[in-house]
Amino acid sequence: MASGASPVAMESTIFSNLGLPSPANTEALARCNAAIRAGGAEPALTAVLNGAAVVGVEEAFYDQICGPARKVAERDIAVAVAQGWSYGATTVSASVALAAAARLRVFATGGLGGVHRDVGESMDVSADLKALSVHQVITVASGAKVFLDLARTLEFLETSSVPVLGFQTDEFPAFYARSSGLPVPHRVDSAEEIAAIARAHWDLGGGGVLVVNPVPEDAAIESDVLEEAVDSALGAASDQNVTGPAITPLVLAEISRLTDGASIATNLALAESNASVAASIAVAL
Ligand code: PSU
Ligand code: MN
Asked: Which of 118, 271, 128, 153 is nearest to 207 (CA)?
């Protein structure tokens, strides 16, 4: 930052054993880094490593990043630091909090956490949504993860006063699929437009801005195939009585099994595309 680089923050959960299987996780990290650098920006991976909250993990730690982790949401950062966890993998909420603390303004991820479909019973709403409303960071994601309740996730973002900007799209993307049938409140077509909106939002004391970028067309999964996989993955989670933070890793792994690994290639492509869009926004800012 001192040398004038435009940093783009990233989370580590997606690259750990809680996100993508090996070796796809190593490939994902390399592709996201390359996409950010190709866009003229500088990657800043976040994690808790050996009790230190890090923004800008050095390459020497990549083996650790792509290995076994404990999941760290925003509220867990303090615990992981004080207890000296060897590897706490940051979720979106933790990454956005750390990015803001280090004065980084742009963050790229795959898919956001959000409102779970069984929210009526579980009250499970990801801390990602609250972090987005509080911290002055632009998050670029392919919407929220498709096994969530996307309509309620959008409602929650409205209640939290988070501007939701469709990047070159009129629809809220469905993570592995380009379309959810839900309109975005606003469409934007350039990085400069996003930078101007974020500056105006921050001038008014606003928090985060969400930019949603659909997965590239050639990597998208057909919506009907996806819905079937999601239904049976959620069924498996409920049969195994998995709840709380363990749900997301299990459901992602089940969808990968049910799509014969297709969802992994899709996840890599969308993360890379989001990294590239985030780089252009960081440069524009
Ligand atoms: N998107 C992915 N892979 C992931 C996640 C999102 O493509 O592993 C992770 C992110 O770290 C996100 C977290 O913040 O899942 C949400 O978990 P929860 O629903 O428990 O808040
Ligand atoms: Mn949750």
From this structure: 128
Report CA(126)–ligand 2 centroid distance (Å). 5
Q: Residue 181: its pLDDT value, please? A: 95
Ligand 1 atom at minimal distance to the Cα of residue 71: 11
Closest to 170 in 3D by CA, of 159, 181, 160: 181
Superfamily of domain 7-284: Indigoidine synthase domain (3.40.1790.10)
> Mean pLDDT, 10 residues at a time, over the chain (285 residues)?
93 96 97 98 98 98 98 98 98 98 98 96 97 98 95 98 98 95 98 98 98 98 90 94 91 94 97 98 98
**Which of 11, 42, 74, 254 is an active site residue?**
11
Distance 245 CA to ligand 2 centre (A): 5
Domain ranges of the chain: 7-284
Supply the pLDDT for residue 223: 86
